Amino acid sequence: MPFFKDISKASDDALGDDYTSKVSSKMKTKAGPVGVTCETTRVSKDKISLLSKLSFKWAGPSGFSVDKLQLKDNGSHVLETSLVGAAGNPNLKFTFKGDDSQKGDLGVEYSKGMLGLTAEMDIIELKKVSASALVTKGDLAFGGNGTFKMAGSSVDKFSLGASYSSGPIFAALTTDKFAGANLGLMYKVNGDLSLATSSSHSADKPLDSVTIGCVYNAPVGVVKAKCTSGGVASAVLVKDVAKKVTVTPSLQVKNGDIKNASFGFGVVMG
């Protein structure tokens, strides 16, 4: 985990990845040197319709790449680019993330050895600057991030966190302005089964919310299941049905109401 944003990635991925309540498909291919991805989602409101977005990716010369040029389903555009190895330093990376709704963030990332640093500035509206730092030493990692509002010259938010990973055990603790804390845990029981939890804590609510889940490598595919303290139970199967074709049927039940359970189905090709 070279950067602070990934400090709790292990438990977050176990409880968050692959779950869906939508019916969608994603197709990946290449047009020469350009990677092309088309994502289509079925939307059911007054009537059923399909919404699609198209993304392009291109690795250019001298470390420059277009990481995402996306045409979204509402007609707007997103552009993300990066430049690696600027000033002859392979550990340095510049990024730009913008769209056509007054968003334009210029960022820089630096990672070497046990240190990972990031900084990002809103160069369109000049509203905020954010930065993060992470130090990794053996099984431990600790760091923090913060956002500074340029209008009013005040700290908008900041977080501190630490993680521990050794053998089958992973734990991460992060705070938000010291007003509350989030704890993520994961334990690998064996090569096929992992257990994970996520919980939020504060002085007003010592145990605000809890999510408990598992990941199991079953003969039929990867099975994930989780339940929350709010009474929501979810399950998903990640199954490779052919070469470069993965399906993810999912189920969500709220407060034991099986009759009104919601279903999702995803397909990824390429």
TrEMBL record:
GO terms for molecular function: voltage-gated monoatomic anion channel activity. This is Voltage-dependent anion-selective channel. It comes from the Eukaryota. GO terms for cellular component: mitochondrial outer membrane.
